[in-house]
Design brief:
Layout: E1 4-6, E2 19-22, E3 26-27, H1 30-40, H2 45-48, H3 50-56, H4 66-71, H5 73-80, E4 81-83, E5 88-98, E6 108-121, E7 124-135, E8 143-152
Parallel strand pairs: 1-4
Antiparallel strand pairs: 2-6, 3-6, 5-8, 6-7, 7-8
């Protein structure tokens, strides 16, 4: 899908209530999950031990950490949306975050992005996105989040 290019942060306001787009599919390899486990200290076997997960996990294989999935937000957002004439983007927080289904290692994930709101703040705007992380071949998404970003002049 083509990237939405916005000339400046104020021009984003016309997209409130609309879907901005969908990212490309991205494969989730075990090596990325292992690196995430190393950086966070979360070495639970359902993420890092394929043999044990095959035998003991309810998923039958390793799955991505929920927060790994959410950590893809900035890179996938930037595949969908480009705002020219902004100085900085700040990940301000989350209003809501849910992990309705697993993201199995080896599968592909993509993000669907909708703009829920835009609010003027000092030297910029604060936006709330609805980010839905879809998994190839799965009905339920791996993650649904309301992500709050600040775009500053």
């Amino acid at each position: 899908m083509a990237k939405v290019k916005i000339p400046n942060i104020d021009a984003l306001k016309v997209y409130v209530g609309k879907e901005l787009g969908v990212s490309d599919w991205r494969e989730v390899p075990q090596k990325d999950i292992n690196l995430f486990a190393e950086s966070t200290g979360d070495h639970q076997f359902i993420h890092t031990d394929p043999e044990r997960a095959k035998k003991e996990s309810p998923y039958g294989r390793t799955i991505a950490h929920g927060f790994f999935t959410m950590s893809l937000f900035p890179v996938l957002r930037d595949e969908i949306l480009e705002i020219e004439k902004k100085r900085v983007t700040i990940n301000y927080g989350l209003n809501k975050l849910r992990f309705p289904a697993p993201l199995p290692v080896g599968e592909k994930v993509r993000m669907r992005l909708e703009l829920l709101s835009v609010e003027d703040i000092n030297k910029g705007i604060q936006v709330v996105f609805k980010a839905t992380f879809e998994v190839s071949g799965q009905e339920k998404p791996a993650c649904v989040a309301e992500a709050v970003n600040r775009f500053l002049y």
